[in-house]
């Protein structure tokens, strides 16, 4: 019932053609009792200006779990990079967060997430 968002999902929040659908997905997940995880690297990739009102609002929400990268998490991400052959640390952190929480991933690039963990359910942003 939960969702983990990558940078593409965060950017979709402020994209005119995608914002309504993205917000509806998030609202429905929370309504069903799910959680929303946003890895901190995805925030760094998506944040482009202070005019990203919907993204800023999401990040202030009490429904959001911002996943940080502690040294232990960084080691886990590094090991998963090695096992999967995928060197994008942000993608791998997204996949790791989703796996740990049993979430689906909302992503603009399902192939990247599937390359890290083919068992993760993905939703195109």
Overview features:
55% helix; alpha/beta; five-stranded parallel sheet; 125 residues; globular; 7 helices
Can you walk me through this structure?
The protein has a five-stranded parallel β-sheet with strand order 3-2-1-4-5, sandwiched between helices. Helix 7 links the parallel strand 4 and strand 5. It is 55% helix and 14% strand. It is α/β, with parallel strands linked by helices and 125 residues long. Helix 1 packs across helix 3 and helix 5 crosses helix 6. It contains seven helices and five strands. The protein is globular, with a radius of gyration of 14 Å. The mean pLDDT is 96.
What is this entry, summarized?
This protein is α/β, with parallel strands linked by helices and 125 residues long. The protein is built from seven helices and five strands, in the order βααβααβααβαβ. A five-stranded parallel sheet has the order 3-2-1-4-5, with helices on both faces.
Radius of gyration: 14 Å
Give the total of beta strands: 5
Largest sheet strand order = 3-2-1-4-5
In N-to-C order, the SSE pattern is EHHEHHEHHEHE
How much beta, percentage-wise? 5-15%
Principal-axis shape equals globular
The largest β sheet comes out as:
5 strands, parallel
Q: What level of helicity do the residues show?
A: 55-70%
The tally of helices reads 7
Alpha-beta content class:
alpha/beta
Distance between the first and last residues' Cα: 17 Å
Poorly predicted segments: none
Provide mean pLDDT, rounded: 96
């Amino acid at each position: 019932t939960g969702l983990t968002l990558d940078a593409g999902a965060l950017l979709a929040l402020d994209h005119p053609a995608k914002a309504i659908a993205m917000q509806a997905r998030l609202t429905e997940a929370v309504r069903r009792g799910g959680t929303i995880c946003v890895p901190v690297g995805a925030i760094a990739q998506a944040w482009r200006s202070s005019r990203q009102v919907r993204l800023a609002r999401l990040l202030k929400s009490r429904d959001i779990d911002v996943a940080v990268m502690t040294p232990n998490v960084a080691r886990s991400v590094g090991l998963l990079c090695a096992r999967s052959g995928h060197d994008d640390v942000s993608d791998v952190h997204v996949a790791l967060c989703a796996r740990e929480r049993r979430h689906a991933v909302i992503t603009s690039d399902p192939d990247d997430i599937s390359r890290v963990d083919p068992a993760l359910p993905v939703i195109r942003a």
